[in-house]
Design goal:
Layout (H helix, E strand, L loop, with lengths): L1 H8 L5 E6 L2 E7 L5 E6 L5 H13 L15 H13 L4 E8 L2 E10 L8 E8 L8 H15 L4 E7 L3 H9 L3 E12 L2 E11 L2
Helix pairs in contact: 1-4, 2-3
The structure holds coenzyme A (COA).
The site of coenzyme A (COA) has 21 residues, from strand 6, helix 4 and helix 5.
Length: 202
């Protein structure tokens, strides 16, 4: 994971990457100077990962999952994370730790089709209190570096059109909007397009 260290450190804000028995760990500081760590999730993180997903799902403007679609079974989530650890070339879940708590996560997985297995799909989110402090930008750079290190050629994601902050951050790190599903997602009383964004990895 030497490449991960090099590429993340070269991002807009400095971070220090190290390699542990559980894979790469990135230590950074946010815009307020508070340290945070991005590391691969472990089965023991299952409860916290479920809590983050549930919190993100409650903010219906931003993510596709609804609260009732977040599995509450911690044992099952721990088994999933154990499977992820064994298959970490094709599937990576990372968490963001700050001040003793888990404040965000990402899910990066290879498209499960042989003809598309050079492509990874990314999803991520931070709890509301952790946003707007530069953490999300580092989290995306971490994901891009990991995908690039593993030899993938493209990362894609989906973002709801009204999520201006996420679209801004994705564009800032080099994603381009390459398509959209019209009137795809119900948000409150309205309906939003779902935008496809992609970033080739050189
Ligand atoms: C989207 C998300 C990952 C971004 O991470 P973050 O840590 O909040 O973002 P950063 O602090 O790194 O960067 C925020 C940038 O967005 C800008 N921004 C903030 N609010 C904005 C808005 N309403 N419209 C446009 N830009 C906005 C900031 O000015 C900053 O820009 P800059 O870096 O050019 O100065 C995070 O906010 C999040 O998880 N939100 C909730 C869930 C979500 O939307 N997930 C993504 C689903 S696709």
């Amino acid at each position: 994971m030497i490449g991960l260290a090099r590429q993340v450190v070269n991002g807009p804000k400095a971070g220090v990457a190290t390699v542990s028995s559980h894979g790469s760990t990135l230590r950074c500081v946010d815009d307020a100077g508070v340290e945070f760590v991005i590391r691969q999730a472990r089965p023991s993180d299952a409860g916290a990962v479920g809590d983050i997903l549930a919190e993100l799902a409650r903010s219906e403007d931003f993510i596709l999952l609804s609260p009732e679609e977040i599995g509450a079974d911690v044992v099952r989530r721990a088994e999933d994370l154990a499977r992820m650890e064994k298959n970490s070339v094709r599937w990576h879940v990372a968490i963001v730790e700050q001040a003793g708590g888990i404040v965000g996560m990402l899910d990066l997985r290879a498209v499960p089709l042989k003809k598309c297995d050079h492509v990874m799909e990314l999803g991520l989110g931070l709890v509301a209190e952790a946003t707007d402090r530069g953490i999300g930008t580092q989290l995306i750079l971490y994901a891009l570096a990991r995908a690039r290190d593993l030899g993938y050629r493209k990362v894609r994601l989906f973002v709801i059109a009204c999520n201006d902050r996420a679209r801004h951050v994705y564009r800032k790190v080099g994603f381009e909007e390459t398509g959209r599903f019209i009137d795809e997602v119900r948000v409150g009383d309205g309906i939003e397009d779902l935008i496809v964004m992609e970033k080739p990895l050189q």
